[in-house]
Design a protein that fits this description.
One of its GO terms (molecular function) is peptidoglycan beta-N-acetylmuramidase activity. By secondary structure, the protein is an alpha/beta fold. The protein folds into two domains: 46-243, Uncharacterised protein PF07075, DUF1343 (Rossmann fold, 3-Layer(aba) Sandwich); 267-383, no CATH class. The protein contains 14 helices and twelve strands. It has helices at 4-18, 27-31, 57-60, 84-90, 139-142, 162-176, 219-228, 267-276, 340-345, 351-359, 378-382, 385-393, 397-402, 407-415; strands at 69-73, 78-79, 82-83, 95-100, 118-119, 126-129, 147-151, 179-183, 240-243, 296-299, 309-310, 329-333. The strands form three sheets. It has a seven-stranded mixed beta sheet, with helices on both faces. Strands 10-12-11 form a three-stranded antiparallel beta sheet, with no helix packed on it. A hairpin with a 2-residue loop joins strand 2 and strand 3. Helix 6 packs across helix 7 (219-228). The longest helix has 15 residues, at 4-18.
Length: 422
Amino acid sequence: MYTFYHVRLLASAALALLLTTTSCKTPQQQETAPVAQSTVTKPEAAQTPIVTGADQLEAYLPYLKGKRIGMVVNQTSIIGNTPSVDSLHALGVNIVRVFGPEHGFRGDAPAGIKVSDSVDPKTGIQVASLYGAKNKPTKEDLADIDLIIFDIQDVGTRFYTYTITLHRVMEACAENGVELMVLDRPNPNGFLIDGPILEPENKSGIGIHPIPISHGLTVGEFAQMINGEKWLANGIQCKLKVVKVKNYTHDMPYTLPVAPSPNLNTQQAILLYPSTCLFEGTIFNHGRGTMFPFTVMGHPDMKDKYTFSYTPIGIKGMAETPLHQDKVCYGLDLRNYDINKFRETGRINLSWMIELYQAYPDKARFFDYKQSNQIGNIDKLAGTKKFKEQIIAGVSEEEIRKSWEPGLSEYKQMRKNYLLYP
């Protein structure tokens, strides 16, 4: 075991190494799945490099001295190119337990698949699943822990479940007197604040907070909002420490170094996700069962309307039984859609939903998600039953957007109270 003096020396050396990228690939680099570049992404302007919270070892490693640490992490939790658990374990940090969210600690479980407790074979550390028999740490889980580190890459949408995991971990920490440290990361959709506010009757496993579809916050800012708005049970407060991202603003383009989940495997998919995930609540396949999920939408009955086609198949670790498996689907191909339009308009895209609903011949089945193996109905994804009613009634996109007010504007104003970055 290293002394803490040695840990600090190692941390300084590790930090210098991690922030100096070389062309050589290590075994650890090969373990992480990089996000494929979109063919339409424009080159990012020259700027001072963004430094994530995790990469600032000097900012938090001394604070871990003498503490028993728990970590809420997945495959996106990296220091340089190495998993943060592996890095901190090698530096002698006393990691008692790792908590894994949806998709598991190493990020290899498909969406919606329950994950069991285990022991990490690489480090020997206990792994407690938060996406299986329980959804938040128990009193027993936290009895031998002084501080929890939360280090997970989010993509900035209400129905992406990692902020729900954050909420539950904060609640467990508050109930058991355990401090939470967030190692913050940029939000690739941080520039986008749009969508209807979640109504209380539509709370579910894919949305519990009264926020729009795309919330425009980092995880650190979201944690501050949870505390500040007293969203935890009985308004309890979590003792919170955030290690901020350096050189970051919300409007900066940011390409994720690691795919945040198996089906968000390209930058194109990540930026389309706030718009195309709504198709989870329809009878349309939206690319699950292909290597380009969330960038195409189609249905077998659309052959007479569209020439573009693809065939979903079972893919282990991504979508083993996708909707319309082994059937040719016809519809929209968004793989070359100019994703910079989202930055220019500041809006999610509703036109694809309106277009495909109008084109689909059996409209009574369009929102019948129970006939598919999708994750949730459209009311829970949109956060309001009005959205489905408006699409069915043929309400224009502008009228739909008007119905989001004043809630959306009120949220934007409230959000300002919790911002850590311009």
